[in-house]
């Protein structure tokens, strides 16, 4: 079993420096910075976009751009528990196959994304996607 360590250090006021297992910094602060609760859905879509992009590229899909957004529903009262996260994938490309995207998302959710696997038993996770066609630009034309 792998062991990974991340750290958080109080800087001043409501500013904290988070560091991933490689020391990469993330500023968590109020009002100008990432909020702690935002890191949960960000973690989910960060893991998801990584895996979906990798799978679609291996499937030789002509993707030009992928965006993923998460919309969270949380309790109104402390501790403001997450109840549902809706994940929306927007994929731009040329003749991208719907079945390839469905497969990439399914593999991400069922096999590869550790964040999804961890959250699935605890909260409702819903995934949707849309394909946005981009015409192939001829060389030399904008």
Give an account of the 3D structure.
With 142 residues, the chain is α+β, with helices and mostly antiparallel strands. The strands form two sheets. A three-stranded antiparallel β-sheet has the order 1-2-3, with no helix packed on it. A three-stranded mixed β-sheet has the order 4-5-6, with helices on one face. Helix 1 (39-58) crosses helix 2. 15% of the residues are buried. Helices cover 29% and strands 35% of the residues. It has two domains: 1-34, no CATH class; 36-133, GMP Synthetase, Chain A, domain 3 (2-Layer Sandwich). The chain starts with 6 loop residues before the first strand and ends in a 9-residue tail after the last strand. The longest helix is centred in the middle third of the chain and has 20 residues, at 39-58. The model has no long low-confidence stretch (mean pLDDT 93).
In short:
The protein has 142 residues and is of the alpha+beta class. The chain has three helices and six strands.
The total tally of domains equals: 2
Largest beta sheet: strand ordering: 1-2-3
CATH architecture of the largest domain: 2-Layer Sandwich
The largest pleated sheet is described as: 3 strands, antiparallel
Please state the overall shape, judged from the principal axes of the Cα atoms.
globular
Query: What's the mean pLDDT score?
Result: 93
Q: Whole-number radius of gyration?
A: 18 Å
- CATH superfamily grouping of the largest domain: K homology (KH) domain
Order of helices and strands: EEEHEEHHE
Number of DSSP helical runs: 3
Name of the level-1 CATH class of the largest domain: Alpha Beta
Assign the structural class, choosing from mainly alpha, mainly beta, alpha/beta, alpha+beta, or little secondary structure. alpha+beta
């Amino acid at each position: 079993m792998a062991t990974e360590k991340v750290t958080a250090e109080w800087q001043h006021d409501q500013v904290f420096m988070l560091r991933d297992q490689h020391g990469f910094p993330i500023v968590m602060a109020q009002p100008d910075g990432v909020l702690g609760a935002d890191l949960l859905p960000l973690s989910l879509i960060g893991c998801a976009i990584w895996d979906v992009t990798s799978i679609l590229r291996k499937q030789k899909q002509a993707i030009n751009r992928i965006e993923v957004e998460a919309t969270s529903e949380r309790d109104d009262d402390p501790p403001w528990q997450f109840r549902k996260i809706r994940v929306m994938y927007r994929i731009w490309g040329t003749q991208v196959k719907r079945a390839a995207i469905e497969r990439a998302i399914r593999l991400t959710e069922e096999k590869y994304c550790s964040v999804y696997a961890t959250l699935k038993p605890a909260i409702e996770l819903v995934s949707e996607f849309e394909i946005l066609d981009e015409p192939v630009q001829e060389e030399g034309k904008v």
